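User: For a reading group we're discussing how well predicted structures match intuition. Take LysR family transcriptional regulator. Before you show the prediction, I'll give you the sequence so everyone sees exactly what went in.
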Amino acid sequence: MNWDDMRLFLAVARAESLTGAGKALRLDPATLGRRIARLEEALGSALFARSPRGYGLTEAGERLMVRAVEAEQALTEGVEEVRGQEGQLTGTVRIGAPDGVANYLLPQVAAAICDRHPGLEVQIVALARVFNLSRREADMAIAVSPPKTGRLTVQRIADYQLHLAAHRDYLAAHPPIRDLADLAGHRIVGYIPDMIFDSELDYLSATGAERVALASNSVSVQLNWLRAGAGLGIVHDFAIPAAPGLVRVLADRVALRRSFYLIRHGDDRKLARLTRFAGLLLDGVRAELQRLEGLT
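Assistant: Thanks. Here is the predicted 3D structure of LysR family transcriptional regulator, as structure tokens, for the group to look at:
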């Protein structure tokens, strides 16, 4: 077995398909499939469960995944030391996050980190669901609730604020809103109820509304509806500066506080490179939250 085999294995495990991994590796999927089959034959164990939905890790594959990631990180750190770049971060770091933080906080934070570490590549995966770090979908993830199971480490990043908001044009064209009872005559924008993946994202009760007329599992879609003057909805304060014309409504009556958490795999505590990056990420997100919320 050589490192190239592990590199191919990691790519397939992360993409969960030969096609996705082949694109990342610039390798023909058929060739990649043969290489994976030979690796499984050499190890005497199936690493992937094939299905129409793709390649899922078997129990043996998950065990190998943990060690392969450790080896990958150790190799990256070793290369940095040999090149005399102990003070510089290089290689790739993948962050998973809900699309609100992925769209309105992480881009500028990641760019600032890369400005200081030009050899670093940061990937942001925005998904409206909980990330599975045990399957190494990402190197670390930002979540709105701390996980209760799994070999994970959790660091609280910071609290953030949310308020009811609407565009000035919408408010000018519709009846005034002086109390929660007045919301009954207005169109509410929010999450699709049965696609709320974390109870911390269930904001409907804060408005007293019984239904969401315009719903999406994406924070960005919701914000675009509000920006277009389509209705009222709960908005992250840190996203309001990205939507000129959006103003808070009943700010003293509808105000929510939530928290962000940085989640990492428990085994990654030994990896100095990821720990250093996590520290930069924590500091960056906290500072950007404070800056953006100050603008509102």
